[in-house]
Amino acid sequence: MNRSDLVAKISEKSELSKKDSEKALTAFMDSITEALANGDKVQLVGFGTFEVRRREERAGRDPRSGEAITIPASNSPAFKAGKALKDAVN
């Protein structure tokens, strides 16, 4: 399912226009992105949790030359599915 399919499904289920559904989806994604950028955790009970995980600096290899390199530390967004979502999928 891509973005336009999701907008159509939201529109169908909520009886909103596709334009309003697009705005709602965009606002939802922007809100989660903003919260994660501020270091907050977003918990949607029954659905899951969006959070930022810290990846420490580590050693790696350049695949072209085989030379050892240092991969810098970074933050990575992560999603952990909630129990209700896991049960619905299984």
Report on the architecture of this protein:
This protein has helices spanning 3-14, 18-37, 83-89, and strands at residues 42-44, 48-55, 58-61, 68-71, 74-81. With 90 residues, the protein is α+β, with helices and mostly antiparallel strands. It has two domains: 1-39; 41-90, IHF-like DNA-binding proteins (HU Protein, Chain A, Irregular). The strands form two sheets. A three-stranded antiparallel β-sheet has the order 1-2-5. A two-stranded antiparallel ribbon has the order 3-4. Helix 1 (3-14) crosses helix 2. The two termini are 19 Å apart. The mean pLDDT is 95.
Features:
about 90 residues; HU Protein, Chain A; three-stranded antiparallel beta sheet; two-stranded antiparallel sheet; 3 helices; 5 strands; about 45% helix; elongated
Strand and helix map with partners:
Blueprint: H1 3-14, H2 18-37, E1 42-44, E2 48-55, E3 58-61, E4 68-71, E5 74-81, H3 83-89
Antiparallel strand pairs: 1-2, 2-5, 3-4
Helix pairs in contact: 1-2
Compact overview of the structure:
With 90 residues, the protein is α+β, with helices and mostly antiparallel strands. It contains 3 helices and 5 strands. The chain has 2 domains: 39 residues; 50 residues, IHF-like DNA-binding proteins (HU Protein, Chain A).
Radius of gyration: 18 Å
Count of β-strands: 5
Q: Architecture of the largest domain in CATH?
A: Irregular
What fraction of residues sit in β-strands? 25-35%
Question: Which runs of at least 5 residues are low in confidence (pLDDT < 50)?
Answer: none
Which class best fits the helix and strand makeup?
alpha+beta
Instruction: Specify the biggest β-sheet.
Output: 3 strands, antiparallel
> Helix count, per DSSP?
3
* CATH homologous superfamily placement of the largest domain: IHF-like DNA-binding proteins
CATH class of the largest domain, please? Few Secondary Structures
Strand order of the largest sheet: 1-2-5
Q: Give the termini distance in whole angstroms.
A: 19 Å
Q: Tell me the helix content.
A: 40-55%
SSE string, helix = H, strand = E?
A: HHEEEEEH
In the CATH hierarchy, the third-tier topology of the largest domain is known as HU Protein, Chain A
Mean pLDDT: 95
| Shape estimate | elongated
Number of separate structural domains: 2
